[in-house]
Amino acid sequence: MSSLGITVKKSEDFSEWYSQVLVKAGLVDLRYNVQGFVVHRPWLMRIIRAIYRFFEEELEKTGHEPVLFPLVIPEENFEREKEHVQGFKPEVFWVTEAGDEKLERRLALRPTSETAFYYMYSFWIQSWRDLPLKLYQSVSVYRNESNTRPLIRGREFLWIEAHCAFSTHEEALRQVEEDMENSRKVIWEKLGIPFLFLRRPPWDKFAGAEDTYAADTLMPDGRVLQISSTHDLGQRFAKAFDVTFLDREGTRRHVWQTCYGPGVWRITAALIAIHGDDKGLVLPFSVAPIQVVIVPIYYREEDKKSVLEKAHSIEEMLKQKGYRVFLDDREEYTPGWKFNDWELKGVPVRIEIGRREAESKTLTIYRRDTGEKKQIEEAKLLETIQELEKSILENLKTKARRFMESRTVEARTPEEVVKALKEGYLVKMPFCGREECAMDLKEKTDGGKVRGTEISFKEGDYGKCAWCGAPARQIVYVAKSY
Amino acid sequence: MSSLGITVKKSEDFSEWYSQVLVKAGLVDLRYNVQGFVVHRPWLMRIIRAIYRFFEEELEKTGHEPVLFPLVIPEENFEREKEHVQGFKPEVFWVTEAGDEKLERRLALRPTSETAFYYMYSFWIQSWRDLPLKLYQSVSVYRNESNTRPLIRGREFLWIEAHCAFSTHEEALRQVEEDMENSRKVIWEKLGIPFLFLRRPPWDKFAGAEDTYAADTLMPDGRVLQISSTHDLGQRFAKAFDVTFLDREGTRRHVWQTCYGPGVWRITAALIAIHGDDKGLVLPFSVAPIQVVIVPIYYREEDKKSVLEKAHSIEEMLKQKGYRVFLDDREEYTPGWKFNDWELKGVPVRIEIGRREAESKTLTIYRRDTGEKKQIEEAKLLETIQELEKSILENLKTKARRFMESRTVEARTPEEVVKALKEGYLVKMPFCGREECAMDLKEKTDGGKVRGTEISFKEGDYGKCAWCGAPARQIVYVAKSY
């Protein structure tokens, strides 16, 4: 049995820990025979679906509607926006044949769908009445990445892409804030993953955007992971795809656009990595495929009936209250094996029912996040579960935020920057704003990247750039990244 | 306005009616610049999602778990099962390039995923403890079809594929019945679409299957549409992919497999085609994106406030009861325009609130399926809506079943078969069971196909084959098909 558990500590070898959890908790299988393409197993799919549902709810509350665009995009669509094609073409997969025949023109597997959506937007948007247009799709996208890592960087990965069009730039900028708020409601409030929402420096923006805003979370190894992003596309695509509308005064104008991509795959990676511990996954109720597992314990055949009866009645009661409950009455596994397996899979609460519990009006409750075990009166079960649901999420949030805060340091000198990045810290520092300074920093710190300023940040006089000593115009975050 | 409505009668030109409904009700857009690939608009996506949810619920209730396999399948996987590769290879799309480089081996876009799933099943299934294994995925698949038709035949289309493995053939055959029951629960009970569940003749089975069972519904033009199918794969794929298990006695054996494909796209097509009428879509509550639309009507500014107040309070009440309600208070459209538009889109119930309704405790209610309008007391609204939900579904079911029954005839002679097929009937007839007879029938009736026997059917002596006069062993259904 112990060979099935995680064999390294998360704090000592995060990379190995992460790889082991993914496989041992039954999330992915990496043995599929196309490199960089992952098989998503049921436990992972159920978590991912819950995350999708949260985002879709928020998007619909804020007026977005679901669509589904074709997987394939003609090459000519890409060519329309110059920066976009430069950014994405090198990693596009191309469909060139069907059956025994060569296609007349090759078709891209969508790496992202601006050039599919906006081709249609030129038909759909004619008048001010058609605006704002807010659509999204929940799909996989395809990029021929190297250095793939499950849920972090894949050749096929899951996300949502929302594409909005407005009559003014002001509305588009408000959409950026709405997207940040949507991310906060799901990623922080439901999943307990803290993040910074940063405006990327101009050299690190989405290909084809005027500006990119992105959510960065901090992984246990001190590297940041971008888990969602919103792009202010200005009127670039509108001009490339001729998306115009007649305003109320009868003037034809180009729309202003944004696109928003919650990285469902990467959010799942962050969830696993940030909340997990040396025993495996730790899941909040919000996404746990099983929220409460009931393990009956009996060693003598004469106890079996009363133990199982009680287990079934508890199961029934919690199911009726809407909880996702599983009574693990499989006879081919021991209680100890089950404990380990459900801990590895991150089930938030375990109820143990043995002879003692069956004979009294009590239950033994184990919570996965703290490892605490306690006896409660059976009458207080529902109340206890409700409390645990809240308190587990609060605990995960608190721990995650504390971790991120404790791994963030301010730096004023190149020496401090180098030391902090080496030790796996997220660095906050005054910065001159120049690309060449950022590139120099990156080179000399083995990959430290200027991630950007906070979205509400205003430029000003911030003393000297921590890296080059020139006058600083910004306070930026710097970190190594995935 | 009238130019936006459907301009032909469904009974007179079904094909044109169907094309107009798809576009005018805002379901699909066919202007995307890759032929055979369809843009799914919000109204369609919401219907499709509801259908997915129903199937996923039934599948999970019967022990299936969700997975997601890669889109791409290596050519070598296809080659493993001889009939399968012959059946599917001619229509496979191939990815051959990434960026500027040629891939070492070409990758198929999944036309169906047996050869992806079963490659992994050989890892996942080792012992009797691993069985039964029941997994499914909700995805798009890709086939280079000609004669594409939106929601009926596409190069990209949406479905579910469930893949099960068992230790005995008996269990596999029980799965076929479970699949039929799942189809019945969703397609008939929730959506009101009647179908026959038929065992296909050997020459019309899925490539690689021992037997194919399929649900056929009858479209308004008298052609049948296959909307779901289950395949008894026997041990063919198990042998091709070496999927074996150690049984309880320690003997290594090949598994028995089935796969089940509810055709979500085609079920949606049947829903539109069968329930729709000359005004457009007619949707049951189960899948209607909006179940109740409230249209406020006022011609004098002084009535506006009281009308809108009442409209809002009705909206609020119904929302709290869990209905999908939309208050259409847009000022840029007239009530008449709104009536037509929501009728075209198939919203099952409309509540009209004018000055009269605002001044009294009454409401005017319109039901889309029958076109009836009546006044009710406001206090009876909830009760009325609950009744309508049931009665609309019952009415759609009854009409659909009556249509299918009225378009089914028995035939005993070639003349009767020819006449019935020409007039758009589904024919029930004694049949000899020979492929050459079926091919002769098909050729001489301009496409009439032997669709198979009912699943519970037992072979016996059924007089003479209606087509060739030889002794008949079966009663089969024959029809032209999509």
Content-based structural category of chain A: alpha+beta
Uncertain residue segments of chain A: none
Q: What assembly state would you assign to the polypeptide chains in this entry?
A: homodimer
Radius of gyration of chain A equals 25 Å
Proportion in β-strands of chain A: 25-35%
The largest sheet of chain A is: 11 strands, mixed
Read across the widest sheet of chain A, the strand sequence of neighbours is 3-7-8-14-11-10-9-22-23-21-20
Organism (chains A, B): Infirmifilum uzonense
Keywords (chains A, B): Aminoacyl-tRNA synthetase, ATP-binding, Cytoplasm, Ligase, Nucleotide-binding, Protein biosynthesis
Domain Aminoacyl-transfer RNA synthetases class-II family profile (chains A, B): 46-284
Main location (chains A, B): cytoplasm
Structural description of this entry:
Chains A, B: Its EC number is 6.1.1.15. Chains A, B: It is found in: Cytoplasm. Chains A, B: Catalyzes the attachment of proline to tRNA(Pro) in a two-step reaction: proline is first activated by ATP to form Pro-AMP and then transferred to the acceptor end of tRNA(Pro). Chains A, B: InterPro entries: aa-tRNA-synt_IIb, aa-tRNA-synth_II, aa-tRNA-synth_II/BPL/LPL, Anticodon-bd, Anticodon-bd_dom_sf, Pro-tRNA-ligase_IIa, Pro-tRNA-ligase_IIa_arc-type, Pro-tRNA_ligase_II_C. Chains A, B: This is Proline--tRNA ligase. Two copies of one chain form a homodimer. Chain A contains 14 helices and 23 strands. By secondary structure, chain A is an alpha+beta fold. Chain A has three domains: 2-275, 2-Layer Sandwich (BirA Bifunctional Protein, domain 2), CATH 3.30.930; 292-390, Rossmann fold, CATH 3.40.50; 408-479, Translation Initiation Factor IF3. In chain A, the strands form five sheets. In chain A, strands 3-7-8-14-11-10-9-22-23-21-20 form an eleven-stranded mixed beta sheet. In chain A, strand 10 and strand 11 form a beta hairpin. The radius of gyration of chain A is 25 Å and the shape is globular. Chains A and B meet through strand 2, helix 2, strand 3, strand 4 and strand 5 of A and strand 2, helix 2, strand 3, strand 4 and strand 5 of B.
